[in-house]
Amino acid sequence: MTPSHTDQLPRFPFEAASALEPPAEWAEFREKCPVARVALASGDEAALITRYDDVKSVLSDPRFTRPTAGDNAARVADTESGGVFNSEMASVLPQHGEDHLTWRRMIGKWFTAKRMNALRPGMAAMAEQLIDEMVAKGAPGDLKAGLAFPLPVWVICDMLGVPDTDRDRFAHWSDVMLSMTRYTQAEFDAAQAEFGRYMGGHIAAKRAEPGDDILSALIADGDGWSDAKLAATGIGLLIAGHETTANMIAKMTAMLLADRSRWERLLADPSLVRTAVEEALRADANAGVGMTRYLTEDFEVGGTVLPAGTTAMCSMAAANRDEGVFADAAGVDLGRSPNPHLAFGAGAHACLGQPLARTELQVVLEVLLRKLPTLELAVPAGELRRIEGLAVGGLRELPVRW
Fold first, then answer.
1. May I ask the CATH class of domain 3-401?
2. CA-CA distance, 78 to 136, in Å (whole number)?
C-alpha cells in the first residue's frame, strides 16, 4: 500500500460544506460505489465501506480486528503523529480474542444500566451548576466550553477516581492523542509520556489507598494486571469518556437548535428525549473517520472481494443515512423508533461506554430543556465551525443565547 498509487484516489475523510451537513460523497458512494478505494491522510490506500449492511457485517465479523503492529495496515495518518491510532496504548490493550473479551467484561461492569441510573442525579446536579455558571457570565455563551466539555470530564474523572481539577491537562493530552494531523510526532510522544506518568502515579496512589472507583476495582480484581495495562485502560477511558461525548453534546444541541421546530417539539413533549438522543447520534454529520478493520483473509462484502491485507474503513455515519434501512434517512425524526444506528459500532469492538454516553446526552438535554427553554444559536447554523484533523468530529465552539 504505497502512497505512489493513491494520487488519483478520493481523499478520505471527505470535506463537507458546513459543520452540520454531511459530505455529499457519503450518499454518492453508498449508491454507486459502496466498497470504494480511497486514500487516507497518510497517502495509504483503504477500502471505504458506506452501506449499512456491509458496515455492520465487517464490524461484526470476529475474524477481523483493529490493525496491530505486525500488520502492514494502512496508516490513518503518518505525516504527523497519527494520534491514538499509532499509540502505545493501542498496543498494550488486548485487541482481540479471549483476552479482549475478558478486558471488556472487567470494564463493562462499570457501565451497567443500574450504575448509570445511580449516576443520573449527580450528572443532573453538575449540569445545572454548569448552566448556572454559564448564565451568570451572560449571553452569548459557548455551550461547548461551558457545559458540553466539562460535564463528561467531571463524570469520567469521578468514575476513575482522578481529580476533576486536572481536567485541563486531560483536555490537552487527549486533544493531542485524538488529533491525526495537528501535532508532530514529538508533541504526541510528549503528551503520551506525560499522560502515562500521571496515570502511573495515580495507580500507585490507588494501590496504597483504594477508593470506590474503576481503577481501584481493577487493581483488586484485575488478576495481576500490569501497571502498563492499568494505565492504558485509564487513559483510554479518560479519552473515550469525555472527548467523544463532549463533541456529541454540542453537535446534538446544535442540530436541535438549527431547526427551531425540533427544540419546540421537545419542549412540548420531553418524553421524546430518549429517541431524540438516538436520532442525534444517527444523524451525526460530523462523525470523524470511522472504524478501521484489518482483513487477515479474503472477504466478500457488497459484491466485492477484498483481498487479505486490505485495511477496511467503515463509515458508520454514512451507513446511518442508508435509505434502505432508515425511512427519510436524510431527515431528522425525533420520535424515530426503532433506530438501529451504528454510531457506537457493532460486534466485539462496539463502544464499551455507550450506556454512559447515552445517559449523559439524555441528562444534558433534559436539564437544558428545563432550565433554558429559550435557548437558541447565537450565530447562523451555517457559520458554526468544525474542528479539523480530529479522529472524532466536532464543533470548535457552540455560541448560544437564551
1. mainly alpha
2. 44
